[in-house]
Amino acid sequence: MFTVALGPGRDLRPLEVFHAEEFARHLDRCREHVRPWVGPAFVTDTVEGARATLRRYADAAAGDGARLFGVWDAGVLVGGVMFVSFSAATGSCELGCWLEPAAEGRGLVTPAAGVLLDWAFDDRGLHRAEWRCRADNVRSAAVARRLGMTLEGTLREAWPYRGTRHDQQVWAVLATDRAAGPGRPAT
Ligand SMILES: CC(C)(COP(=O)(O)OP(=O)(O)OC[C@H]1O[C@@H](n2cnc3c(N)ncnc32)[C@H](O)[C@@H]1OP(=O)(O)O)[C@@H](O)C(=O)NCCC(=O)NCCS
C-alpha cells in the first residue's frame, strides 16, 4: 500500500475493501452531514453497506475506472476524494470528495484532490477533469475554484433530493488550463 503525505499527520491512501469497518465507523460520524450533497449509494448504514461501496470502487478501479481514496488525519479516517468516473479512452474524469464535520475547514481536501489531478493529467495524460456539485454547495464549489476549475454551467433541476430538484453546477479544468504548473492549483 502507498501513502501520500498531505502534511504533518495527514495522509492520502487508497480506501480499500479491508477498510470496511473503519469506513463504516467514519460514515457513522458524517452520514447526515454528507447526505444532501453526495450520491445516495454512497451513504450506507451498515458495515455490509460500507463494504459494498468499497467493493464497487475496487471493481471499477480494476477496470481502470472510478477509484476511491481516504484522507487520514492523526491516524483517523476523516474523509476522502475519488474519481467518480475515469476514462482513459475519452481523456476525461470527474472528481468528488467528502469530509466528516470535524475535519472541515482545515485544508484537507483541496490538496488531496490536487494529488488526483496530478496523477490524471501528468501520469495518465488525461485532458479534462470535472467537478459536479449542487449549486447551493458553497464549500464544494470553493474546492473546485481552489483547484483552478472554471464554472462551465448549471444543469437546471438535475439533482433530486428528498422531493426537491436542485440545480447542479459543472466545474472543469483542462490540461491546457494548468498555467500555474503541474500539480499547482491556481490561486
Ligand atoms: C466539500 C467539503 C469536502 C469541503 O471541505 P473544506 O474543509 O471546506 O475544504 P478543504 O479541505 O479544501 O479546506 C479548505 C478550508 O480549510 C481552511 N484551511 C484551514 N487550514 C488550512 C490550510 N492549512 N490550508 C488550506 N486551507 C486551510 C480554508 O480556509 C478553507 O476554509 P474556509 O472555506 O472556511 O475558508 C466539505 O464541506 C464536505 O465534506 N461537505 C459535505 C460533502 C460534500 O459536499 N461533498 C462534495 C459533494 S460535490
Extended strand count: 8
**Integer count of domains:** 1
Portion of residues within helices: 25-40%
Distance between the termini: 32 Å
Strand count, sense and barrel status of the largest sheet are: 8 strands, mixed
Shape: globular
Write down the CATH topology. Aminopeptidase
Note the topology.
Layout: E1 4-7, E2 10-14, H1 20-34, H2 47-62, E3 67-73, E4 76-87, E5 92-99, H3 109-123, E6 128-134, H4 138-146, E7 150-161, E8 164-174
Parallel strand pairs: 5-6
Antiparallel strand pairs: 1-2, 2-3, 3-4, 4-5, 6-8, 7-8
Helix pairs in contact: 1-2
The structure holds coenzyme A.
Could you characterize the architecture of this molecule?
With about 190 residues, this protein is of the alpha+beta class. It has one domain (about 5-175): Aminopeptidase, CATH 3.40.630.30. It is built from 4 helices and 8 strands. The protein has helices at about 20-35, 45-60, 110-125, 140-145, and strands at about 5, 10-15, 65-75, 75-85, 90-100, 130-135, 150-160, 165-175. The protein has an 8-stranded mixed sheet, sandwiched between helices. A hairpin with a 4-residue loop joins strand 4 (about 75-85) and strand 5. Helix 1 (about 20-35) crosses helix 2 (about 45-60). It is globular, with a radius of gyration of 16 Å. The mean pLDDT is about 95. The chain binds coenzyme A.
